[in-house]
């Protein structure tokens, strides 16, 4: 396939789905409740199916179990680097450290990675994602609840939230099937499981990108404040992403980490962030920063598609 055609075949579907999402908002084809329903289908049904199949079929080794721990530590480091950077730059928002850590893999990362490298490579991305998923569902949300509501989340509340999350359940089930060898022992049953997962996961990329496009509102953005936050995040991601890549290459020289690592560290922070703000001004600031960060991610996606 011609290189230009290959790039366009990767990039144009993304632009098309984002454009449809923006059109649905402009023409009121979808309501906010309708878009929330699309997100629910994608994140509560489709994405768990992808993760179950991906983790079940992944290869495991004792050394690879260290990857989630490293990613968890990197997310913690990103939080405190963001906090320090915000003080140095004189940025007042108390939510700034939450903009410099965590990755929106569920609502964006998996869709973009699959379009770039194919579903058969998703296990590489999923291994890296596992550590940050655990971070977001534990420490991130606990700190966010304390900052937003002024109260601590109990360990029991955190465990309950994780236990009820379809994403955590699907990851746990997939890891159990893969680590124990049950997936390989299923024989022809593997094809049935994969077929069920495939049909549930088929619309995920389109639904996610339409939802992202719907929420990508570019008017009335406080550009200076948003660019400060995004610029700080990019600086933090460049430092930690580079360090992580060097560490992973040293520990596992035979593994190909560049593709999943590059995309992961290009992703915006978790889209759930504005929901936790009870201040309209802060909510608008967070939404603007997320919109700008998403645009940066999409530009990075185009660059990755262009270089292959």
Concise description?
The chain has 308 residues and is an all-alpha fold.
Describe the structure.
The protein is mainly α. Helices cover 77% and strands 0% of the residues. α1 crosses α11 (204-215) and α5 packs antiparallel against α6. The protein is globular and about 55 Å long. It starts with a helix and ends with a helix.
Q: What is the CATH architecture term? A: Up-down Bundle
Overall outline: globular
Biggest sheet details: none
Count of domain modules: 1
Q: What is the N-to-C succession of helices and strands?
A: HHHHHHHHHHHHHH
In total, the number of strands is 0
Query: From the alpha-carbon coordinates, what is the Rg to the nearest angstrom?
Result: 19 Å
Number of helices: 14
Q: What structural class is derived from the secondary structure elements?
A: mainly alpha
The helicity comes to: over 70%
Uncertain segments = none
Our measurement of the CA-to-CA distance between the termini, rounded to an integer number of angstroms, reads 13 Å
Map the helices and strands.
Elements (H helix, E strand, L loop, with lengths): L2 H24 L5 H26 L8 H24 L6 H4 L5 H13 L4 H28 L5 H10 L1 H15 L1 H4 L3 H13 L2 H12 L7 H29 L6 H7 L15 H28 L1
Helix pairs in contact: 1-11, 1-14, 2-6, 2-8, 2-10, 2-11, 3-6, 3-12, 5-6, 5-11, 6-7, 6-13, 12-14
What labels describe this entry?
mainly alpha, Na+/H+ antiporter like fold, 77% helix, single chain, 308 residues
């Amino acid at each position: 396939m011609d290189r230009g055609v290959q790039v366009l075949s990767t990039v144009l579907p993304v632009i098309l789905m984002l454009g449809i999402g923006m059109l649905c908002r402009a023409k009121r084809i979808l309501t906010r409740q309708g878009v929330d329903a699309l997100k629910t289908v994608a994140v509560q049904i489709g994405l768990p199916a992808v993760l179950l199949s991906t983790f079940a079929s992944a290869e495991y080794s004792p050394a690879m179990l260290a990857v989630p721990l490293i990613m968890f530590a990197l997310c913690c480091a990103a939080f405190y680097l963001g906090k320090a950077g915000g003080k140095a730059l004189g940025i007042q928002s108390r939510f700034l450290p939450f903009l410099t850590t965590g990755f929106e893999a569920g609502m964006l990362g998996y869709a973009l990675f699959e379009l770039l490298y194919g579903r058969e490579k998703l296990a590489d991305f999923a291994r890296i994602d596992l550590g940050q998923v655990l971070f977001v569902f534990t420490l991130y949300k606990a700190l966010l609840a304390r900052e937003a509501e002024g109260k601590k989340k109990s360990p029991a509340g955190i465990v309950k939230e994780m236990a009820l999350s379809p994403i955590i359940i699907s990851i746990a089930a997939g890891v159990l099937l893969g680590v124990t060898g049950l997936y390989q022992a299923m024989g022809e049953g593997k094809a049935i499981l994969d077929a069920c997962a495939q049909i549930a996961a088929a619309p995920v990329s389109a639904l996610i990108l339409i939802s992202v496009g719907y929420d990508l509102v570019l008017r009335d953005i406080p550009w200076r404040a948003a660019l400060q936050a995004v610029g700080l995040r990019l600086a933090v991601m460049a430092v930690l992403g580079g360090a992580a890549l060097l560490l992973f290459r040293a520990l596992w020289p035979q593994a190909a980490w560049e593709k999943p690592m590059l995309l992961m560290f290009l992703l915006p922070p978790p889209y759930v962030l504005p929901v936790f703000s009870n201040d309209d001004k802060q909510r608008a600031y967070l939404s603007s920063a997320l919109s700008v960060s998403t645009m940066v991610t999409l530009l990075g996606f185009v660059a990755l598609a262009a270089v292959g």
